[in-house]
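Deliverable D4.2, example record:
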Amino acid sequence: MALPVWLAVTDTRLLLPVLAILLCCTRPLTAVQRGRLRALYGVEVPPPPRPGDSPSRLLGRLRLVLTWRQAAYHLVVGPLLALGALAMAYVWGAALVLTTVYGWIWLMPPTVDLRGNWPAMVSFTVSGLLLAVVSPWLAALMAWLEVWAARLLLGPNRAERLEQRVEEIAESRAGLVDAVDAERRRIERDLHDGAQQRLTSLAMNLGLARRTLKDVSPEAMQVIVEAHEEAQAAIDELRDLVRGLHPAVLEDRGLDAALSGIAARAPLPVRLDVELSEPIAPTVEAVAYFTVSEALTNVAKHARAKSCDVSVRTVGGRLRLVIGDDGVGGADASRGTGLTGLRKRAASVDGTLSVLSPLGGPTTITVELPCAL
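Output generated by the structure prediction step:
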């Protein structure tokens, strides 16, 4: 008889609907249980992760270990906890009955005569008092077991918590990078519209005074000339500072034009090849701009190169930068060169940097950045 029953249970025509019903009910039951724990114990069980995109949502949920842990909780742990709650109710009732034995013993029929059995009466009372004392501890233990089981089976496990934490950190880092870039843009705009304009006006006035004033002493004219030259030098330094914070051409004309400006200002010949077929986030554009700028600066300082090639491409949602030179090679980030800073700058937007620099050259720096954060 057992074999037909087993075949009936394992029959796919019966098993699949049962599994489907179980999987459909786990989330509502888990939500109800989570709300009950929050109301009774003030315990917050984190919600489970959502299944990823898949051809079948049901199959996606079947692949979730958490779904099976939820099913185990509702099918096994839940009934056991319910039996434990009934046992606790029985213990509380027994404690109440045994403790108040002197109050209800007189209501018993004459055939059950315990009124003269004082040892039994005393033992009943003592047992009831002991149960009354132990019951709160048992109830606390049951509550702890319930919370522990809920967190273990209804909430995410350690790997899932770490994954959620990594996602939160990644989102926080992306937000921080965007906030820093926005702040740099604001400082650049304030300097350009404020201090730089005032210095420009001052330099123009000093230049006008230098050209028009003829009846001043040579000493006074020398002071005006020096002030004019200092104002022009301050404008140049402030312009370089503003360009280092966030170049206006990057925002106005895009990455291609900004990199062309870098190549034109470089102290060695630079062959630039840019082909952008996908939109790029402004923060990533800024990282790419400063990466190329710092890389060319390092080439000019350390590589003793005669020329440099810069290639910029977008491939498969990634921005790929390749900076190569014909210098002496031997570049090593562990020796305190600017490669460490370049690697950190790329990592700030979840990018990567690799260096191929044998002794004798050439040196090739490859940077890959995500087009979108």
